[in-house]
Amino acid sequence: MPSNLYLYANCDAPTTTANPRCRTQNRLPSGLSLHGLFFDERLNVIELVLVRHAQPEWSRDGRAQSDPGLTAEGREQAALLAKRLAGEQFDEVLVSTARRAQETAGRILADVSAGVVEHRSWLHEIMMPRSWDDTPAEEVGRVLRDARHRTRDGWWDGMPGGESFRAFHARVTIGLHNELAERGIMRRDDGLWSKPSGAYRALIVAHAGTNSVILGILLGLEPEPWEWERFASTHASLTRMSTTEIATSWIFRLDTFSDTSHLPKDLVTT
User: Fold this and answer.
1) Which tens digits make up the pLDDT trace of 65-94?
2) CATH of 40-267, one of 3.40.50.1240, 3.30.70.580, 3.40.50.720, 3.30.430.20
3) Which pTM was predicted?
């Protein structure tokens, strides 16, 4: 909505900002449509805010870490993200059980209002081989670079010794649908969604892979085993989704993706 759009009433002159005598003093509130003047859609909307964890310490003293905490830069990113979200209210906050997500969420939860905080294993990132833990980080990096040249079937199979993408996608799909169904939010056979009346806001603190699968499911996309490449988000970024009513049902729309406007350029990492 343009910031110079005003409301006009009882005025015979053309409704432009060049006619100040006809202009009221109040602009439309940010984010509110003309329809929203008569019915505030925000009172009947599901909003999901997806956060990717801040920068993790994948390598410590040259050794790979399978469940790392945050780097010093990551802790700074998390603090700035918390400041960005300060004052926002959520009915629920769902957090991955991975340490990097837990540490990111811990910083955020100090500044937001959360009705319920839950820790969910289905939100965990795709599992890499456990044998990688404490191995030379340079070697792990080489394996990951080489793995980009796999066939599509190879991508679906995942890394040898780790979780397959098939299993990962199924885990997130089942977890998400169960989570939403408990709140009366269900996808119909035609791909549209049904929901109870009223608003619901949830914050999900997870990972690039997990969040990309969630996006694909809610947007009705066919899955690919490289979802995090289709939806490449940065550390400590914000992605916002909401429902909109259509065809007597509901769809999810992508409002913002991988927003890092709260971070200075030197703290934007992938």
Assistant:
1) 999 999 999 999 999 999 999 999 999 999
2) 3.40.50.1240
3) 0.84
